[in-house]
Design a protein that fits this description.
The complex is a heterotrimer of chains A (336), B (273) and C (346). Chain A has 15 helices and no strands. Chain A is an all-alpha fold. Chain A has one domain: ABC transporter involved in vitamin B12 uptake, BtuC, CATH 1.10.3470.10. In chain A, helix 3 packs parallel to helix 9 and helix 9 runs antiparallel to helix 12. Chain B is of the alpha/beta class and 273 residues long. Chain B starts with a strand and ends in a 16-residue tail after the last strand. The mean pLDDT of chain C is 85. Classes of the chains: A mainly alpha (336), B alpha/beta (273), C mainly alpha (346). At the B-C interface, helix 2 and helix 3 of B face helix 9 and helix 10 of C. The structure holds adenosine-5'-diphosphate and magnesium ion (MG). Chain B: It is found in: Cell membrane.
């Protein structure tokens, strides 16, 4: 596909626009809600947080939500972009790698068998599940004479994914009591994630993002095929393992925080690629902001659409993201 | 009628970009026509549109005096076969399975594998020298072997016209000659009309009855090899200085380019004592 | 040359060529399936001996067991078998058409559309309209969404990749709608809807079998007729066109066949995932690439996967009756991973 923004200059301008849009979305996400909170209160709360002040508490909740939304959006988007590059399959996403399902399964186990409720503990379970799934997929996709084969990885990923989903469903169907809780988690949510809970995730995601940017340049070689990449002096295997590690760190973190928000990891990379093409440095930067903007706005819409109830953010992202995605699919893919 | 294929103010392009503009080209029946031109000048595009793989922006293409737009795809496939420039062999397909696909336009739901099909496929494989590897997966072959398998497939189509887009890429010299000799024989013996895109001008001049040089979205020169292959044409079409001499074997024109290494003729030094 | 079997009567009226060894393999698989069916019919809260089952099939009166076989186990098994076979072939056609190993009936909106309609039906009309209308609602949903996807993907023809991407998009939107409906409905209909979404053949009747057979039978025959189109399209768009294949019509035909197959399966067995994706791959591991043989093989494997999962679901966790959709990937995925591991060389 041919990108829309051809010159570095236009890409840079696009990025600046995205950053502005991001700031606007962030502002909206903190301002919009049932209760209006004045501007200056925000500064007060920043300077001196007062847990007895209702406005401060509301702000605290909204900032936490915005933080989870941003974290999830950018992690899933970047992770999806990297996995699509790795497998050279436009249909790849963290979901296809079994990462979501692995995390979900571990969370359900933790809730059902160990009666764990604390989010921080659930987070580590989710992370372990994501990691386990990814390692399994990698091992199964790589055994054999030919080493890493994108098709095998993708197939193994789908099977592992199905396996974990079926374990999870089995537990849910046989134990209806947890269904409601887990269903909500499956639909994805950023509600009630106090910012302290996010703390362990933030460094992981930051490190992963830096790594992603560091390997962005060599990743450009991947779609030329292994042989050419090797010929150009790239250590292909090391690069691939690095990509998987980064993708798991990002997606695992996202799933741990927000549950199964599947669509973002698939569509945001496509949207970003529509603008900047295959240069991964730009692609990753665009993914970061587009992912965050999409999630922030989805959260706002989910909050205010049918008050007083909330629509899970995963649902809103899918509903908002689909029209964009279809537009791009129609514009961009003339020939396969 | 002497022209089998003729284009009438044919314009081709992608989106807003015109690649071939108002082209009137006649391809003589029963002759070998070779298209030459610089990379990206639209040779493949032209060939693809003649094979109806690309819709013209305007203009028509006639096959034996009939507008191709009025013939069914299958009808055309029985009369005109094309080998695209880049082909991709499906995973796991064997040589004979691939060559068999050439019979597609002649088969129907009920008649999927007649005695005739079998005979023609075998002949096609033998004449391209791939019969020995009939059961090997195509993906396990070398680039040149693969190319010959694909040529066998187009031969199995048994059409009176063959369009080949750079059929000799990836082939060693011996196999290049072999493929072109095969084209020559098909033309001599069966009277097939053959259109080839070729980069080797010396071989082109040797095998062509008719040559067409493309430049600037249209024909720069056409005619017999002697008429087309000139120093002037080389300068204009390929932006290359060269000498044209006579091929010592076939007496057709032969180009010898100048280059940085040999920017001018080196005179034989005679040391007079 | 490899051993091939050529069907070509002297008159030359028709001719057909099939590879020999895979035919034998397909027949073996079929036998295995029959044996498994007999075993599956025996198992349950009451044991019925395999002998009695064979007697039942040849028309010997087996007394009290007749009721168990005829009314309880056989229709349910047949629905599972038919649904699995349909899903397997549907996925096979799509994977060949799109030339992407990740393609499955989900991507052309059949599952998503069916689920939206079915969940809407369950959450809004349960108690108002008879549940026997549920398959109709699901089928309608599948059909509408498939047409929508096809229309959105059309732009001077259908490009497979565009079709898949748009299908994924629409499917995500559909599952979002489904989740929304489930979350905002009372708990009893939400768990009913959830069971539907995972896929279940609980309480299937002969009526269901009767309604499924004509659709699936016709579609299977049409699927076999796709073989030529599939093989020629594998050579790539340009070559296929130059060989005279009418690609767009063929694609429309293939999509229609797979929509019918999966639509019927989803209507009667709910959103069973995995089978449509995996059965074709398993079939390819075993048979190779001859499409005419992949069709029956994918059908046998898909069907077997589903009914075996169902037998396990209704026998292994007594008194619970675990929905087939849960077990099908629980059993199928390890098997598939094993095959993947086995085939690691080349
Ligand atoms: N699918 C396509 N989309 C857009 N432009 C194309 C496409 N195919 C070829 N072109 C352009 O058309 C021109 C002619 O290409 P081609 O016919 O392949 O040249 P050649 O003479 O080397 O075979 C080139 O400039 C190329 O960039
Ligand atoms: Mg070319």
């Amino acid at each position: 596909m041919r990108e829309r923004l051809l010159t570095t200059r236009s890409k840079l301008i696009g990025l600046i626009l995205l950053i502005l849009l991001f700031i606007l979305s962030l502002y909206m996400s903190i301002q919009v809600g049932q209760q209006h909170v004045a501007w200056h209160v925000m500064f007060d709360a920043l300077r001196e947080y007062d847990a007895t002040n209702a406005d401060h508490v509301i702000l605290y909740h909204r900032v936490s939500r915005a933080a989870s939304a941003i974290l999830i959006g950018l992690s899933l988007a970047v992770s999806g972009a990297m996995l699509q590059a790795l497998t050279r399959n436009p249909l790849a996403s963290p979901g296809v790698f079994g990462i979501n399902a692995g995390a979900l399964f571990f969370v359900v186990v933790a809730i059902s068998f160990f009666s764990i409720q604390a989010l921080t503990s659930l987070f580590w379970f989710a992370f372990a599940g994501a990691l386990l799934a990814a390692v399994l997929v990698y091992v199964l996709g790589t055994v054999g004479d030919k080493g890493f084969s994108p098709v095998r990885v993708v197939l193994a990923g789908t099977a592992i994914n199905a396996l974990f989903v079926s374990f999870t469903q089995g537990m849910l169907v046989t134990n209806e009591a947890n269904l409601d809780r887990v269903l909500l988690w499956m639909a994805g949510t950023v509600a009630n994630r106090p910012i302290e809970v996010l703390m362990p995730v933030i460094p992981i995601v930051c490190v992963a993002l830096i790594l992603a940017l560091l390997i962005a340049k060599p990743m450009n070689l991947l779609h030329t095929g292994d042989e050419i990449a090797k010929g150009l002096g790239q250590r292909v295997l090391a690069l691939k393992m690095m990509i998987i590690l980064v993708a798991v760190m990002l997606a695992g973190g996202a799933v741990a925080v927000g549950g199964m928000i599947g669509f973002v990891g698939l569509i945001v990379p496509h949207i970003a690629r529509f603008f900047v093409g295959h240069q991964h440095m730009w692609l990753i930067l665009y993914c970061v902001f587009i992912g965050a903007i999409l999630m922030l706005n989805a959260d706002v819409v989910g909050r205010i659409a049918i008050q007083p109830r909330e629509i899970p953010i995963g649902v809103v992202t899918a509903l908002i993201g689909t029209p964009f995605f279809i537009y791009i699919a129609r514009k961009g893919f003339k020939q396969s | 009628m002497n022209d089998m294929l003729r284009t009438d103010s044919l314009t081709l392009g992608f989106k807003d970009r015109i690649v071939i503009d108002e082209l009137d080209l006649d391809i003589p029946k029963g002759k070998v026509t070779i298209l030459v031109g610089a990379n990206g000048c639209g040779k493949s595009t032209l060939l693809r549109s003649i094979a109806r793989l690309l819709k013209p922006k305007s203009g028509t293409i006639q096959l034996d005096g009939v507008d191709m737009g009025q013939l069914s795809t299958k009808e055309i496939a029985k009369r005109l076969a094309v080998l695209p420039q880049s082909t991709e062999s499906p995973e796991g397909i064997t040589v004979s399975q691939l060559v068999k696909q050439g019979r597609y336009p002649h088969q129907t739901l009920l008649k999927q594998w007649s005695v005739e099909d079998e005979k023609i496929v075998k002949e096609a494989m033998i004449s391209t020298g791939v019969f020995e590897m009939a059961d090997r997966p195509v993906t396990s072959l070398s680039g040149g072997q693969r190319q010959r398998v694909w040529i066998a497939m187009t031969l199995a189509q048994r059409t009176e016209t063959l369009l080949l887009d750079e059929p000799t890429t990836f082939l060693d010299v011996a196999h290049q000659i072999e493929i072109l000799d095969l084209c020559h024989t098909l033309n001599e013996v069966e009277g097939k009309t053959i259109v080839i895109v070729l980069h080797d001008l010396n071989l082109a001049a040797r095998y062509a009855h008719h040559m067409v040089a493309l430049k600037n979205k249209t024909i720069y020169a056409q005619g017999s090899p002697e008429e087309v292959v000139t120093t002037d044409m080389m300068k204009q079409v390929f932006a290359l200085d060269c000498e044209v001499i006579e091929d010592p074997i076939t007496l057709t024109p032969m180009t010898i380019p100048y280059s940085k290494k040999a920017a001018r003729r080196v005179e034989k030094k005679v040391f007079a004592l | 040359m490899k051993k091939v079997f050529t069907l070509r009567p002297q008159s030359g009226a028709f001719s057909l060529q099939l590879p020999l060894c895979p035919i034998v393999l397909t027949l073996c698989l079929f036998l295995v399936m029959i044996v498994l069916m007999i075993v599956g019919l025996s198992l349950g809260s009451t044991w019925v001996s395999p002998l009695a089952i064979m007697q039942y099939f040849i028309g010997v009166d087996v007394g009290a067991s007749t009721f168990i076989i005829e009314s309880l186990r056989l229709p349910r098994m047949l629905v599972a078998l038919l649904a699995g076979a349909a899903l397997g072939v549907s996925g096979l056609i799509l994977q060949e058409m799109v030339r992407n190993p990740l393609a499955s009936p989900d991507i052309i909106g059949i599952t998503g559309g069916g689920a939206v309609a079915a969940v809407f039906f369950i959450t809004t009309f349960s108690g108002v309209l008879p549940m026997s209308l549920l398959p109709l609602a699901a089928m309608l949903g599948s059909a509408i969404v498939s047409v929508l996807i096809y229309a959105l993907a059309w732009k001077e023809g259908i490009s497979p990749l565009r079709l898949v991407l748009i299908g994924i998009g629409i499917n995500a939107a559909m599952s979002a709608l489904t989740t929304l409906m489930i979350i905002f409905s009372p708990i009893n209909s939400s768990s009913q809807a959830y069971v539907w979404m995972t896929g279940s053949v609980y309480g299937s009747s002969w009526t269901a079998v009767q309604q499924m057979v004509p659709w699936i039978g016709c579609a299977m025959i049409l699927a076999l007729l796709c073989a030529r189109a599939v093989h020629v399209q594998q050579l790539g768009e340009d070559v296929a066109k130059s060989l005279g294949a009418r690609i767009q019509w063929q694609r429309l035909g293939m999509i229609t066949v797979s929509v019918i197959l999966a639509g019927v399966a989803v209507a009667f067995a709910g959103g069973i995932s995995f089978v449509g994706l995996m059965a074709p791959h398993i079939a390819r591991f075993i048979i190779g690439r001859s499409f005419a043989l992949l069709v029956p093989t994918a059908a046998i494997i898909g069907g077997t996967m589903v009914f075996v999962a169902d037998v396990v679901g209704r026998t292994a966790f007594l008194p619970l009756d675990v929905p087939v959709g849960v077990l099908v990937s629980g059993i199928g995925a390890p098997f598939f991973l094993y095959l993947l591991y086995r085939n690691r060389k080349g």
